[in-house]
């Protein structure tokens, strides 16, 4: 075994004009979450417990698009989704359409541990949450004033807005959406920076786990489900590796991106970083996305084809990196 390793992400696709203050806030949050995970790993907490712990922290902080601070639907409400996977036996749990559960990732964990199913959604997931006694809050808890303002701009531009904390230029005419070269399923989008959160961990026993959580897209259609709760697309863990993806959900779904990393490691014999590089280059077609990954050997890797990805990585041998922009 190569020791423990951990990686966290706060979304791929970063506006190049992101204010310096916001960059620093993101780095501070990622650093705090890394230290939280490192402390848990040094205390011999299993990988599955560590990924849940770290993603709960990310959901509680409104900086990224998960839990409190989630993107708003076209109706101005929040519908969240999350998934978690334990590598050793490939056990998993996922939820979608969550509106009152304070920490969706923990509900996904309960689906895995306390139900005969792998995926619950909307009213069924909410009913299961009530039966399990998880902490519930009003939907307004997740809504921020910044999000209300950006939803208004998105509706004026008749567009999905990805980074809802970066002002859209020329919002009066809607040119930001109309002139954008970026598309999703053939439709124009404005600014590409979905801030889904995720964590992957391999513990000192070589057990891998992964977790992903998001509020989805600003101004998304009611009932839209992205890649984050889909096992094999946004999240995957097995005896070889753990992977969490972020970016254009529809492209990630088409590519079954997270599972592809494990597949090329198993069938092509690639190491972790080579596997990550291969799937980012060869499986995304015209989509923009990124991912973080760990292997059973204590390796950690990331890759993305967008302007940047909020990320942090650390290993037992002392390596630690927190970054946003292109990899060195």
UniProtKB/TrEMBL annotation:
EC number: 3.4.19.5
EC supergroup of this enzyme: hydrolase
Keywords assigned: Autocatalytic cleavage, Hydrolase, Protease
Biological process terms in GO annotation: proteolysis
Active site as annotated: 196
Positions annotated to bind substrate: 224-227, 246-249
One GO molecular-function entry: asparaginase activity
Origin species: Thalictrum thalictroides (Rue-anemone)
Pfam families named in the record: Asparaginase_2
Complex and partners: Heterotetramer of two alpha and two beta chains arranged as a dimer of alpha/beta heterodimers.
Domain of life of the organism encoding this protein: Eukaryota
Protein name: beta-aspartyl-peptidase
Parts forming coiled coils: none
Keyword Protease: yes
Site (Cleavage) location in chain: 195-196
Catalytic activity: Cleavage of a beta-linked Asp residue from the N-terminus of a polypeptide
């Amino acid at each position: 075994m190569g020791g423990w390793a951990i990686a966290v992400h706060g979304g791929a696709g970063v506006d190049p004009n992101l204010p310096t203050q916001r960059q620093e806030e993101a780095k501070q949050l990622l650093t705090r979450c890394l230290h939280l995970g490192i402390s848990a790993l040094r205390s011999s907490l299993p990988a599955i417990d560590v990924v849940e712990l770290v993603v709960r922290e990310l959901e509680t902080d409104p900086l990224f698009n998960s839990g409190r601070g989630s993107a708003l639907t076209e109706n101005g409400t929040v519908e969240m989704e999350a998934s978690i996977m334990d590598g050793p036996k490939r056990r998993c749990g996922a939820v979608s359409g969550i509106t009152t559960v304070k920490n969706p990732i923990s509900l996904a964990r309960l689906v895995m541990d306390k139900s005969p199913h792998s995926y619950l959604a909307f009213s069924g997931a909410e009913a299961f949450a009530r039966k399990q006694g998880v902490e519930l809050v009003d939907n307004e808890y997740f809504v921020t004033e910044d999000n209300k303002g950006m939803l208004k701009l998105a509706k004026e531009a008749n567009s999905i807005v990805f980074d809802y904390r970066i002002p859209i230029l020329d919002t009066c005419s809607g040119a930001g959406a109309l002139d954008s070269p970026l598309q999703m399923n053939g439709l124009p989008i404005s600014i590409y920076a979905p801030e889904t959160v995720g964590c992957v961990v391999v513990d000192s026993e070589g057990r891998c786990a992964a977790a992903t959580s998001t509020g989805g897209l600003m101004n998304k259609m009611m009932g839209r489900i992205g890649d984050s709760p889909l096992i094999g697309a946004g999240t995957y863990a097995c005896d070889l590796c753990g992977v969490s993806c972020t970016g254009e959900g529809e492209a990630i779904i088409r590519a079954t991106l997270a599972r592809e990393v494990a597949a090329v490691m198993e069938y092509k014999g690639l190491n972790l970083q080579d596997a990550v590089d291969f799937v980012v280059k060869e499986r995304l077609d015209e989509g923009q996305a990124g991912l973080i990954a760990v292997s059973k050997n204590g390796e950690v890797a990331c890759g993305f084809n967008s302007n940047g990805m909020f990320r942090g990585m650390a290993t037992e041998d002392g390596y630690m990196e927190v970054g946003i922009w292109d990899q060195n």
